[in-house]
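Suppose you are handed a protein chain with no further information: no name, no annotation, nothing but its sequence. What can you learn? This example shows the usual starting point.
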Amino acid sequence: MKATKREWTGLAVLALPTLLLSLDVSVLYLALPSLSADLGADSTEQLWILDIYSFLLAGFLVTMGTLGDRIGRRKLLLIGGAAFTVASVLAAYSTSPEMLIASRALLGVAGATLMPSTMALIRNMFHDPAQLAQAIGLWFSCFMVGMLIGPVVGGLLLERFWWGSAFLLGVPVMLLLLIAGPLLLPEYRDTAAGKLDLLSVGLSLATTLPVVWGLKELARQGWATAPVAAILAGLLIGIGFIRRQQQLEHPLLDLQLFRKGKFSAALGISVAAGVVMAGISLQAALFLQVVEELTPFQAGLWLLPQSVAMILGLSLAPRIAQRLPTSVTAAIGLTISAAGLVVVTGGGLAFLVTGLTLTSFGIGMPMALMMNLMLAAAPPERAGSVAALAETSGEGGVALGVALLGSLGTVVYRNQLDLPAALPDDIARQATESAVAAHQLGSDLAVAANTAFVSGLNVVAVVGAVAFLACALLAAVALKEAPAEDKVTESV
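A reasonable first move is to predict its three-dimensional structure. Written in structure tokens, the prediction is:
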């Protein structure tokens, strides 16, 4: 059944929270200096202001996705929208770091209701596979638009108003969602889902939160005992969570989904893409600001082409997939991404920007298609759970990419750094910490640091290219349509 004007208008309503969430993240980074000065936030409090949102977002996604399947996806979306509005106002008018941290925590929990509910409702609204793929592509594009315009909108606001205006951006958007949602969005819930297992909820949080925190800490401070222990503890609890799900008639997470080859392959490709893109994006941002010595604003301008290219890839992929099998479309995109990372190794600003633009265009092609495949592989009553699982995996992939590929770049930098033999030990130790530290110690060390940093960037790019080629092969084989499958499946 084809979607009507009502469904497409409803998609515009669902795109609003997506646009807002991505815009909110990018704006906060600009507001952090002024709000820290105003509230007297120290470095530790600043980190919690930044991180508590993503911690709780990742921790509650699976729970909220399943809860939406049980109580109603539209109902949960509207509850989350109302909570997000209240939390935004509290954050904007916070009078202490502690109040802002608490407000950001509430924003994280509310955000966890929005993402899976939005994607699950799209699955309910668009039954035609080709239209579903197009709708998901537009949804992802709105997310990227938020990332694209966030620094511009945030900069304009913060030049004219106080830092709290960055949080008030969400209020009119959520009010519009609360008004238009009941009129345009359908309700759906699984009447046979059973009660929410609270023990599973606790195990899910105890699994996700330590792992995400540990990965972020590894990315921030390098290998240390506490974050590694947290990750291991989370993984051990995760084993208990899996066993609990196997025992329940109505599990929080349906493990049967992983027995479907296309679902597992699509999820794996999505996670791998998040790992590589997070790692290379970190290295690219550092290259622009450290090696090229650009300001953050100038660096952001040079990264705009890749965001535009990703939006273009997201928009074109559903149309290409109507003419070519999904497996071929995804493999082509991943191969283009691999080629882009090879271009990055050419050296210099032009090669970096060109390579990242190619990489982003290529990765845009499979992004929406993988989500489409995962939703199509699950029964409609599990759409919320699938969307939540995909979002949680994405959050983990980004954290893992920053931690692993960021660490790889650092290791190569330290091994390739060529320091003068007569350099004092304390100066040498500071220079080996990072290229940023080396730049602060003199021009001679800066030149050596730049050379070593570029070596690390190139290694990360090559590893990423190999990973993308492996994913392209996986897509071509594991996502290949069987001869018995009908044309509708091919249009997905």
